[in-house]
């Protein structure tokens, strides 16, 4: 188990035995290189499989959840209660013609969707799904996640530029500006948790929440950071109320106007997996990740909570966050681009900075009221 | 004498830049006729400078069916069918306008029962139409759920209509001389169900959309139409009342039994969307009238009777959910078919307000302005 | 204010106007060259104050060889309405534009031009509104012929 340098509240290592594929593969590298490579290959295949399965499930969920919000049923015909609807949609997208506009840069046009999916796949590798289900626990986890989401922005920009269309380019520029702006306040929210737990490693952050989840254990600042993170992430993943890049602006579909067939499928997939990722991040950093819900002192209750496997806890929390994002999308109207920018630079950024300073003061001066350790 | 006929091509040609203030950076953008946000087939040519709209050139005519020409070959009863299809969301009011004009011209008297039922169904349709406006406003601005809620509530009113009138959209119910059919025995009960359902729903509408801060920020100070401009641009209905002019034909020139019902004319201050409160007022009117529909025949002229209008011009107007609809019938006195029929439609006159209020707004604001003008395109084009 | 006082005031503003009694409500007829002056008085004089041009259309009297232009005015200040008619010859249908008085006239006149072919002197942008710019003929005229038109079965 890796030693995690820590300077936050409480302890960094928990009573769980944490195991990652990267550790195992690294340990085997000298003697059994082929076994080590095998682990890596299986892990990569698992990630790709996860992307596919998650995509299918999430798109079906979106349709069903939105339908029930709107007093209707959603897909009901393709399979019982329409569960094979997304499979049918994916098949359709595979069979569609991949059009490339005249004058487009065909190499970049091909590359852009893969950039988006690559960013998504990289982040999926570092998320802690369970104490022994994690591909790699990078000890700069939070920084890694923030940096790699920048790669996703590249996918949007390259896609918009390579389409050789005015509207794609303008939609891409808008989308990129929006994402880059909101990354600032998302990062400020993440930094609050980093200060509190004293480590950048995602697994370390989860383990530091054994005594309680940061959303309530950090009085006030945790909740505020959580709310800020939710708002900023909605903008990061281009969902209503921040979907101006895909909504009616430019009267087209933004950067992916000129995409069809498999390439469009990848953009679409990347968008939904992005939603999964920000939900998983929110669950990991604020809601305890795979830590069960414990109330200090109630041993019987804690015992019952421990019966649910940690992986299930993680996915349940992520699912709750996904539902929250879907709820937002189907309830709120969308903001205009200038209102969106004003919200970020004039509201979220100052609030985020103040929150961070208060958290720093809290950690340094020991001003916290909840039990630790 | 200087009559110069221009064409759209001249207006949009690059050579225009030489003579006018069109700078190099301005470009044209077509919104419609096929567009997910458009309310129908209306083409809006936008002259844009980056994100800011400099000029809006509406190009209607995609739904022009020549209704006024057709009317010259049809009897008055047959024309009622065509009025349904102009502003289909207020078909009963359109029927009523034509019927009232014909009745006043030909001297046909109606009775209390007919007028009461006409008022009730027209007000119910006003509620229905404004509910659709609310849903479409949400949809245009990104909230897709209210649209379906509005349709769910319209269904209840449509069911009440279908039982009595036989149709859900093209009503063809209010005829010169009375009503096409007498009301169904279950009509009163159904309307009471509608009233019981809609009152709390309107509060839910406010909680869900109209009270939402994002929506209010999208609409606040966007495309404000001052009162004098609204009057001069011929706007009527909620568009005019939102600008602060209290013109409502139901109070100014009462028809039907509006004099018997107590209701307020909803007037805004800075171009408010007054339709939410108007829905409440309409429900109040129906509530006051539904329990006391007088007995009597539903038709005071025989259905097969020929209605001949005396020679001259006959004009009647009515307050539809979108504004003042006027029917001008010119008859030569010789046949039962009119010589000329002209419909002064509220939507044709409200449309051009967008040319006055759009310059200076952003593209996203154009969509908000169109949504709040509540246009029905077939009414513009006839 | 009823008809009794409205018509005399209108006649005082424009003595050459003739009262008509075949229009249901108060109505006057005036010659086209006096039309603009009358309309300006109707809008500007405070006891008339017609601030809305509700409707404007044209009627094609084929046998009599004239177009009858109909203007329906309304005053929100006083609550009265007035119909003003003017006739222009069918072979030279030119009328003064009222778009300087009521901006909505700009588009109401465009509609009459599009469908009836009446030309408006001084109109800033006289252009068809429903039909394409290169459409031949004016459909609402009684003598309009079109290969797509059908005869009604008798």
- Rg over C-alpha atoms of chain A, rounded to the nearest angstrom: 21 Å
Strands of the biggest beta sheet of chain B: in what spatial order? 1-2-3
The class by helix and strand makeup of chain B works out as: alpha+beta
Mean pLDDT of chain A, to the nearest integer, reads 83
Number of helices of chain B: 17
The overall pLDDT of chain B, averaged over residues, is: 86
Low-confidence stretches of chain B: none
What coarse outline of chain B follows from CA principal-axis ratios? globular
Q: Per the principal axes of the C-alpha atoms, what is the gross shape of chain A?
A: globular
| The level-1 CATH class of chain B | Mainly Alpha
Helix content of chain A: 55-70%
Provide the CATH topology of chain B: Cytochrome-c3 Hydrogenase, chain B
| Termini separation of chain A | 20 Å
What's the total number of strands of chain A? 0
When the domains of chain A are counted, the total is: 1
Characterization of this structure:
The complex is a heterotrimer of chains A (about 375), B (about 375) and C (about 150). Chain A has about 375 residues and is mainly α. Chain A has one domain (about 20-365). Helix content of chain A is about 65%, strand content about 0%. Chain A is built from 13 helices and no strands. Chain A has helices at about 20-30, 35-70, 85-95, 105-125, 140-160, 165-195, 200-205, 215, 220-235, 260-285, 300-305, 310-330, 335-365. Chain B is about 45% helix and about 10% strand. The longest helix of chain B has 29 residues, at about 110-140. The mean pLDDT of chain B is about 85. Chain B starts with 7 loop residues before the first helix and ends with a helix. Chain C has about 150 residues and is of the alpha/beta class. Chain C has a domain at about 5-95: Beta Polymerase, domain 2 (2-Layer Sandwich), CATH 3.30.460. Chain C is built from 3 helices and 7 strands, in the order αββαββββαβ. The longest helix of chain C has 13 residues, at about 30-45. The model of chain C has no long low-confidence stretch (mean pLDDT about 85). At the B-C interface, helix 1, strand 6, strand 7 and strand 8 of B face strand 3, helix 3 and strand 7 of C.
């Amino acid at each position: 188990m890796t030693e995690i340098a820590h300077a936050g509240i409480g302890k960094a290592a928990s009573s769980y035995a944490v195991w990652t594929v990267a550790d195992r593969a690294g340990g085997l590298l000298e003697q059994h290189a082929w076994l080590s490579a095998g682990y890596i290959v299986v892990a990569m295949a698992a990630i790709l499989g996860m992307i596919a399965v998650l995509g299918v499930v999430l798109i079906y969920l979106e349709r069903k959840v939105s339908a029930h919000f709107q007093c209707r049923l959603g897909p009901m015909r393709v399979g019982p209660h329409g569960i094979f609807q997304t499979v049918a949609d994916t098949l359709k997208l595979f069979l569609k013609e991949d059009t490339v506009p005249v004058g487009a840069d065909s190499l970049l046009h091909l590359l852009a969707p893969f950039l988006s999916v690559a960013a998504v796949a990289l982040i999926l590798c570092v998320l802690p799904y369970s104490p022994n289900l994690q591909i790699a626990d990078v000890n700069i986890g939070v920084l890694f996640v923030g940096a790699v989401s920048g790669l996703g922005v590249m996918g949007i920009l390259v896609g918009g530029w390579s389409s050789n269309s005015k509207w794609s380019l303008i939609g891409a520029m808008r989308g990129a500006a929006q994402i880059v702006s909101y990354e600032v306040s998302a990062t400020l929210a993440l930094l609050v948790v980093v200060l509190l737990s004293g480590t950048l490693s995602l697994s370390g952050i989860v383990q530091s929440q054994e005594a309680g989840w940061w959303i309530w254990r950090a009085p006030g600042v945790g909740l505020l950071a959580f709310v800020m993170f939710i708002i900023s992430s909605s903008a990061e993943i281009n969902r209503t109320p921040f979907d101006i890049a895909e909504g009616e602006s430019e009267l087209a579909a933004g950067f992916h106007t000129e995409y069809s067939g498999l390439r469009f499928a990848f953009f679409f997939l990347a968008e939904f997996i992005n939603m999964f990722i920000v939900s998983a991040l929110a669950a990991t950093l604020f809601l305890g990740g795979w830590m069960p819900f414990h109330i200090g002192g109630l041993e019987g209750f804690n015992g019952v909570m421990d019966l649910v496997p940690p992986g299930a806890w993680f996915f349940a929390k992520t699912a709750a966050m996904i539902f929250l994002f879907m709820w937002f999308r189907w309830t709120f109207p969308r903001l205009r681009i200038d209102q969106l920018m004003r919200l970020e630079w004039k509201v979220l950024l100052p609030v985020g900075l103040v929150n961070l300073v208060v958290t720093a003061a809290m950690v340094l001066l020991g001003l916290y009221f909840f039990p630790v350790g | 004498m200087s009559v110069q006929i221009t064409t759209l091509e001249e207006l949009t040609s690059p050579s225009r830049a030489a003579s006018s203030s069109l700078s190099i950076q301005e470009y044209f953008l077509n919104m419609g006729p096929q567009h997910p946000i458009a309310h129908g087939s209306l083409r809006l040519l936008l002259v844009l400078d980056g994100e800011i709209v400099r000029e809006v050139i509406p190009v209607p005519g995609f739904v022009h069916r020549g209704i006024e020409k057709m009317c010259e070959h049809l009897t008055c009863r047959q024309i009622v069918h065509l009025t349904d299809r102009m502003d289909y969301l207020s078909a009963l009011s359109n029927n009523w306008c034509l019927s009232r004009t014909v009745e006043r011209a030909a001297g046909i008297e109606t009775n209390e029962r007919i007028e009461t039922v006409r008022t009730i169904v027209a007000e119910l349709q006003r509620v229905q139409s404004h509910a659709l406006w609310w849903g479409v406003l949400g949809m245009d601005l990104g909230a897709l759920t209210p649209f379906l809620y509005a349709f769910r509530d319209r269904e209840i009113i449509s069911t009440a209509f279908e039982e009595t009138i036989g149709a859900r959209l093209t009503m063809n119910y209010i005829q010169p001389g009375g009503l096409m059919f007498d009301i169904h025995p279950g009509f009163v009960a159904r309307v009471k169900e509608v009233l019981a359902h809609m009152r709390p729903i309107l509060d839910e509408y406010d909680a869900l959309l109209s009270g939402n801060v994002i929506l209010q920020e999208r609409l606040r100070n966007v495309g404000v139409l001052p009162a004098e401009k609204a009057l001069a641009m011929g706007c009527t209905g909620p568009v005019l009342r939102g600008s602060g002019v209290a013109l409502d034909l139901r109070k100014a020139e009462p028809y039907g039994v509006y004099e018997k019902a107590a209701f307020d004319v909803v007037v805004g201050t800075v171009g408010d969307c007054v339709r939410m409160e108007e829905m409440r007022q309409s429900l109040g009117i129906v509530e006051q009238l539904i329990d006391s529909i007088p007995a009597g025949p539903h038709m005071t002229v025989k259905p097969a009777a020929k209605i001949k209008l005396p020679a001259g011009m006959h004009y009647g107007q009515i307050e539809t959910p979108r504004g003042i609809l006027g029917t001008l019938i010119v008859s030569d006195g010789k046949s039962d078919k009119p010589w000329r029929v002209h419909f002064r439609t509220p939507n044709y006159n409200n449309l051009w307000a967008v040319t006055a209020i759009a310059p200076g707004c952003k593209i996203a604001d154009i969509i908000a302005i169109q949504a709040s003008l509540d246009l029905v395109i077939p009414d513009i084009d006839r | 204010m009823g008809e009794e006082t409205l018509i005399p005031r209108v006649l005082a503003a424009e003595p050459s106007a003739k009262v008509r009694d075949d229009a249901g409500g108060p109505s006057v007829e005036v010659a086209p060259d006096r039309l603009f002056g009358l309309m300006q008085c109707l809008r500007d004089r405070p006891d008339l104050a017609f601030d809305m041009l509700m409707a404007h259309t044209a009627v094609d009297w084929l046998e009599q060889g004239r177009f009858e232009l109909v203007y329906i005015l309304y005053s929100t200040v006083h609550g009265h309405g007035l119909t003003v008619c003017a006739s222009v010859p069918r072979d030279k249908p030119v009328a003064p534009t009222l778009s300087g008085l009521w901006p909505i006239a700009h588009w109401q006149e465009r509609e009459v031009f599009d469908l009836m072919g009446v030309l408006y002197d001084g109109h800033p942008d006289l252009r068809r509104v429903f039909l394409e710019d290169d459409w031949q003929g004016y459909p609402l005229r009684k003598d309009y012929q079109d290969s797509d038109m059908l005869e009604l079965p008798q």
